[in-house]
Amino acid sequence: MSKTTTLKNLVKLSSQTNTQLTLNKDHDYEPSRLVVANILNYSKALSIRNTNLVGAIEMILN
């Protein structure tokens, strides 16, 4: 049997979700140097070219 959702239920769920999101902002999270290095290396190797025939072509140049 499917449950119906009322506006009150949605407002309550939204309020709880917003509360949880604001509580998680208390922590300072930083990516590791390895993660940052991997993202930078990927962005350096990524090449996107626009063509008239097929549109955009994405290539990894490594």
Describe the protein's architecture and organization.
- The chain is of the alpha+beta class and 62 residues long.
- It has a domain at 32-62.
- It has two helices and two strands.
- The chain has helices spanning 7-24, 33-45, and strands at residues 46-51, 55-60.
- Strands 1-2 form a two-stranded antiparallel ribbon.
- Strand 1 and strand 2 (55-60) form a beta hairpin.
- The mean pLDDT is 83.
Detail the topology: elements first, then pairings.
Elements: H1 7-24, H2 33-45, E1 46-51, E2 55-60
Antiparallel strand pairs: 1-2
Shape: flat
Which structural class do you get from the secondary structure elements?
Answer: alpha+beta
The Cα radius of gyration reads 22 Å
- Low-confidence sequence ranges: none
Number of helices: 2
- Number of beta strands: 2
The major sheet is characterized as: 2 strands, antiparallel
Report strand %. Answer: 15-25%
Q: What is the H/E order?
A: HHEE
Helix content: 40-55%
Q: Which whole number gives the mean pLDDT?
A: 83
Major β-sheet strand ordering: 1-2
Distance from first to last alpha carbon: 53 Å
Task: Summarize the entry for a quick read.
This protein has two helices and two strands. The protein is of the alpha+beta class and 62 residues long.
Structure characteristics:
alpha+beta, two-stranded antiparallel ribbon, 2 helices, 2 strands, flat, 62 residues, 50% helix
